[in-house]
Amino acid sequence: MDLQTLTVLFVGITFAIYIGIAFWTRAGSTHEFYVAGGGIHPIANGMATAADWMSAASFISMAGLIAFYGYGGSVFLMGWTGGYVLLAMLLAPYLRKHGSFTVPEFISDRYYSKAARVVAVICLIIASVTYVIGQMKGIGVAFSRFLEVEYETGLVTGMVIVAFYAVMGGMKGITYTQIAQYVIMIIAYTIPAVFISFMLTGNPIPQLGLGSEMADGTYLLDKLDQVVTQLGFTEYTTQARLSTTNMFVYTLSLMIGTAGLPHVIMRFFTVSSVKAARESAGWALVFIALLYTTAPAVAAMARLNLMQTIDQPTQAQNLAYADRPTWFKNWEKTGLLKFEDKNNDGLIQYTGDKKTNEMVKVDKDIMVLANPEIAGLPNWVIAIVAAGGLAAALSTAAGLLLAIASSISHDLLKGVWRPNISEKDELMYSRMSMIGAILVAGYYGFNPPDFAAGTVALAFGLAASSIFPALMMGIFSKKMNKEGAIAGMLSGIGITLLYVFQHKGIMFVKSTSFLGDMGPNWFLGIEPNAFGAIGALVNFAVAFLVMSRTKKIPKKIEKMIENIRIPVSN
Amino acid sequence: MVNNNNDYWKANIALIIKCLSIWFVVSYLFGIVLVDVLNTVRLGGYKLGFWFAQQGSIYTFVVLVFYYAKSMGKIDKKFNVHEK
Fold first, then answer.
1. How far apart are CA B15 and CA A570, in angstroms?
2. Residue A338: helix, strand or coil by DSSP?
3. Which of A74, A86, A89 is opposite residue B54, by nearest beta carbon?
4. Which residue of A has its CA nearest to B65?
5. Is the confidence metric ipTM above 0.90 for this complex?
6. Partners of A213 in the β-ladder
7. Is the distance from CB of A375 to CB of A303 less than 8 angstroms?
8. SS3 for A312?
9. Quick check: B5 and A221 CB within 8 A?
């Protein structure tokens, strides 16, 4: 069977499974819609969290970024896993103990204030919508390749499918579907990695293959360093991301952001106990680590294969454009890969020097999807990767849309504006807000501010600077009052948005960036994607300052804090 | 059996500080700040600093979260605040 048929077959079968599960387990009540009835097993919840968590950014984009950033890409690996340590120890068990449907609901209870709830909803929506934009880029890339159409057409197709799928299920449907999606995702990610690792090093375990010798006796990473430096690129294993400070702050932003992202926190409302919440975080991390420790191997091996396919030891032996392989032609159709014959010799030169480099566009987001083709793996492997990439994008988009929808319908409508709304109407508004969010995200999908993983990193910064500090202080400080929390959230997200918009334009419209005579990354050389940790610091500082000058919190809130700190009152 | 929520909370904080110190060392110190120093040591084909940044820190995180869950389970029982 040819690739197109196989892909359609695999994607079709997996989609039929998801839709079947979503339909079979669809939510009837708001309790089922928001928290799946609150009785999911920790391992099952861990798996669903992993799928929810690992998005198009993790699956499609991350290894591609690492392939080109080398060691600098480590910020994503450490940042997106280390956050679970924070989540498991600082937030999840206590939030589960308190028991609420949404993150803003907790903030509203803890800070005895509807205003705090509205501020939390605004922060949540800004962070989540930015995150969905990142997914849309990934979905667009995946669909454009597999339908062999332009990126834009792929994006619209993806939007329609996500809309159909997420609106129906609610949390209950989403949880069970995500378990299926995790299984498909991890199989799809691992199979080509095992194949390629075995082909290059003889060791089928990618985590070990990356540290092994190749057939000629040199270590794979040494070989890669040698190949890229010869072509004028920076050495792979030591190439830092801008600076040590920037990498430190970037990693911290991603970690804090992970612990502050509402769609991940919400998952811990679905388990049955405090103990289950702690364990579930561990299981989630196991399932995530399976993919995250494979990713660096995929990255290095993809880079090596790509380089060695195109560039040869002497320039005259380089790949001729006329002889380019099928994958090359297919990706050219999507507009994400471009060649320009600068010296008119008909051969492809791929170098680190802008003047002689003829691969004028190699979108980093295509690497994972193209990798099995570049390595010449059989068509069925490539088809599985397609299904996996779509599973990753869909599962996360669905979880995020749910977080957005619930904050609008449950927190704004039921919590603030119309407390008497019926359950049926609440569900309807919830579904309507999902569709609204898809349209906004789709618009930005046409003008993405960065690569999928880069855009997602921005979302983490926004969550890190607003939601995480408010939650943490809510649990660990018995003194933090509503004035402090509100001022903290607003100043944290405010200063982060300011820095981001200053670089990337207001609402990500490039022409409106206002750096003026300040250079890019002017604050300690920190890039905007990494600024969330600074925003979080500002949040904490402002919150404590304001708190010290305003009223003490009521006695009954102190009691409430004491209560969420212990699993069961004795 | 002890019966004091304050001491329970202190025990929890002490455990968190212990775990987060390790969390900080493997990622921020070994993976970022001290990476060049560690890179002079090799672990097979890996430079050690690079290995911590792309592999080792993640394995440590997994162990830490389970260790915390298990230890907290014991502390819960000791202070008699565990779920039945």
1. 21
2. strand
3. A74
4. A282
5. yes
6. A219
7. no
8. coil
9. no
**Which residues of chain B are within 8 Å of residue A569 when distances are taken between CB atoms?**
81
| Three-state SS annotation for A181-222 | HHHHHHHHHHHHHHHHHHHHHCCCCHHHHCCCECCCCCEHHH
Rounded to 10 deg, the angle between the A3-24 and A114-146 helix axes is: 150
**Dihedral angle over CA of A105, A108, A112, A113, nearest 10:** -140
Do residues A195 and A181 lie in contact, with contact meaning Cβ atoms separated by under 8 Å? no
The token pair that represents A441 in the structure block: 């995200």
Q: What letter does residue B43 receive in the DSSP assignment? A: E
What are phi and psi for residue A154, nearest 5 degrees?
A: -60, -40
- Least Cα separation, residue A324 to chain B (angstroms): 32
CA distance A425 to A416: 15
A215 in Cβ contact with A202 (< 8 Å): yes
Answer for the pair A401, A162: CB distance below 8 angstroms, yes or no. yes
Per residue of chain A (570 residues), give pLDDT as tens.
788 888 888 888 988 888 788 777 766 666 666 666 566 788 888 898 898 888 877 888 889 999 999 999 999 999 999 999 999 999 999 999 998 888 999 999 999 999 999 999 999 988 888 888 877 877 887 788 777 788 888 888 888 877 777 776 666 667 788 888 899 999 999 999 999 999 999 999 999 999 999 999 999 999 999 999 988 899 999 998 889 999 999 999 999 999 998 888 988 888 889 999 999 999 999 999 999 999 999 999 999 999 988 888 778 888 999 999 988 998 898 888 999 999 898 899 888 888 889 999 888 888 888 899 888 899 888 888 888 888 888 788 878 888 888 888 888 888 888 888 888 888 888 888 888 888 888 888 887 766 666 777 788 899 999 999 999 999 999 999 999 999 999 999 999 999 988 888 776 777 777 777 778 888 888 998 899 999 999 999 999 999 999 999 999 999 999 999 999 875
- Tokens of residue A130, six digits: 């930015």
B24 close to B32: Cβ distance less than 8 angstroms = no
B42 strand-pairing partners:
B47
DSSP 8-state assignment for residue A343? T
Say whether A279 and B51 touch across the interface (CB within 8 A).
no
Task: Record the tokens describing residue A245, joined without a space.
Answer: 């400070």
Token pair listed for A390: 């779509």
